[in-house]
Design goal:
mainly alpha, single chain, 0% strand
Length: 481
């Protein structure tokens, strides 16, 4: 019994390897990467393929067909026809050639046509007899179905088999693909931002050293920071620094950029996450309530408040909050202090107001689209409670557009938190990038932008995975992909 269970498990494993390999064959990039990762196994399979190909019946049939055609009058007729065509062409263009050259060209063309005819007739014979031509891919797929071959080749092909197993899990494959895409997105962001800074009319040396700086001092500054190099050399240096997590030293203050950003980024990220949580807690119930009571006084009131939230500028709202809650009522501190959690309340509310309004309006419109669908009416007819129908059927199906808005606006909040940080004197990544762009301090700006781009890419991957978790149709497409 135990032996049978082991055999079944081995069969399922080999079947999984085979089926995944078939899918990867359809993706040229994956197929090439697979062959490279399993180079020892690839060489072994290729040797087996060469040996098998010698005894392949399809090759023997092709050779027989080719020999018969070569020895028949068909080849002679082809040679004569091509020789006549070449002679007429030369006569038309007035470029006479020697008879030996004409015969050589006609023989070459006749050979090509003969191979095409032999291949076509061989395919017809193989199809009629039900014979499949052995290819390298088929050979590879066949040996992967052999448990003994898998055991022998497991160690030399460990990277290849690991890659196949990763590819067989559609969630892991999807995440890895998106992360690879994110790398290219981040690279594009780096090139774009660096190019803009490079073309900027601001001169870091002149801005930092002042008007009294001599040309020698400016040249020394440029040599120290590599600003005297070409555009390509500076860009390559910036990309290398980001790839190795060595962002270098800032022009202003000569501080380590990576260490500085590592200290400032968590503050902005925490502020954005708290604002997102506040938005979800407030906006989703508001949107559902408005959707369940459309065109009512409550609906109009809530959506009017949401419209006001979208219209209020962050800096103005922040100043009003400071004036009201800090100066007049003396309830909350006017500036941020890491040791006082109350100082985070006003920045979170100010930053999350626009997101709360947007999510509330999207929740309402998305719920209104599904709340009168047939499956909702059917669920109500079954006697299910109103709350169950709203949350289980309506809200679940309305969640995809809401997740999309959250993903888009979260990135905007993370990159656009500079205004809120300035108003409340928060030393975060947003205000850091704004302060450095007037120099312009290229290492500092690039480092900050890359941190934000990485975070937004990860958030988008999470949003895409939530799509699959919420909608079974997307999950099914991911399995087929």
């Amino acid at each position: 019994m135990q032996q049978q269970a082991i055999e079944q498990r081995n069969f399922r494993f080999t079947e999984r390897i085979q089926s995944t390999f078939m899918k990867m064959q359809l993706r040229p990039l994956y197929y090439i990467l697979l062959l490279v990762l399993g180079l020892p196994v690839t060489v072994a399979v290729f040797v087996l393929y060469v040996i098998r190909k010698k005894d392949d019946r399809s090759n023997r049939i092709h050779n027989d067909v080719y020999t018969q055609l070569r020895d028949s009058d068909y080849y002679r007729q082809l040679s004569e026809e091509f020789a006549e065509q070449i002679a007429r062409k030369n006569q038309f263009f007035g470029t006479p050639e020697q008879e030996e050259s004409v015969l050589k060209q006609s023989a070459t063309q006749a050979e090509e046509e003969l191979h095409k005819t032999a291949t076509t007739r061989t395919a017809e014979i193989l199809e009629a007899q039900g014979i499949r031509k052995t290819t390298f891919s088929q050979m590879f797929q066949t040996v992967l179905g052999n448990p003994r071959f898998l055991m022998v080749s497991f160690v030399p092909g460990l990277l290849m088999y690991g890659f196949i197993l990763l590819f067989s899990n559609f969630y892991i494959k999807y995440v890895l693909e998106r992360l690879v895409m994110s790398v290219f997105v981040i690279l594009g962001v780096v090139v774009l931002v660096f190019t803009i800074l490079y073309l900027s009319p601001f001169d870091p040396a002149a801005n930092l050293l002042g008007e009294a700086a001599t040309q020698q001092q400016i040249d020394a500054f440029n040599r120290l920071h590599g600003l005297d190099q070409s555009y390509i050399a500076q860009l390559w240096s910036a990309v290398q620094g980001i790839a190795t997590f060595d962002l270098g030293m800032s022009y202003e203050g000569n501080e380590n950029v990576a260490a500085t950003i590592a200290n400032k980024f968590p503050v902005t990220f925490l502020l954005t996450v708290f604002a997102l949580v506040m938005a979800l807690v407030v906006a989703i119930p508001v949107g559902i309530i408005s959707a369940t009571r459309p065109n009512s006084f409550l609906d109009y009131s809530l959506m009017f408040i949401a419209l006001i939230g979208l219209s209020i500028p962050n800096f103005w709202q922040g100043l009003i909050f400071i004036l009201g809650f800090s100066i007049n009522l003396e309830l909350l501190p006017a500036t941020y202090s890491p040791s006082n959690w109350l100082s985070m309340i006003m920045p979170v509310v100010v930053l999350g107001t626009a997101l709360t309004a947007s999510v509330a309006r999207m929740t309402r419109s998305s719920m209104l689209e599904v709340i009168n669908e047939d499956y909702i009416i059917t669920a109500k007819a079954k006697g299910l409670s109103r709350r169950y129908v709203l949350w289980k059927h309506a809200f679940t199906n309305a969640l995809i557009p809401i997740l999309t808005v959250i993903g888009l606006l979260f990135g905007g909040m993370l990159g656009g938190a500079a205004v809120t940080e300035k108003v409340f004197n928060i030393s975060g990544i947003g205000s850091y990038i704004v302060d450095k762009q007037f120099v312009p301090d290229i290492p500092s700006i690039l480092g900050g932008v890359v941190y934000i781009a990485i975070t937004i890419s990860i958030v988008n991957v999470i949003i895409d995975l939530l799509y699959a978790f919420v909608d079974p149709r997307i999950r099914s497409k991911m399995k087929q992909y």
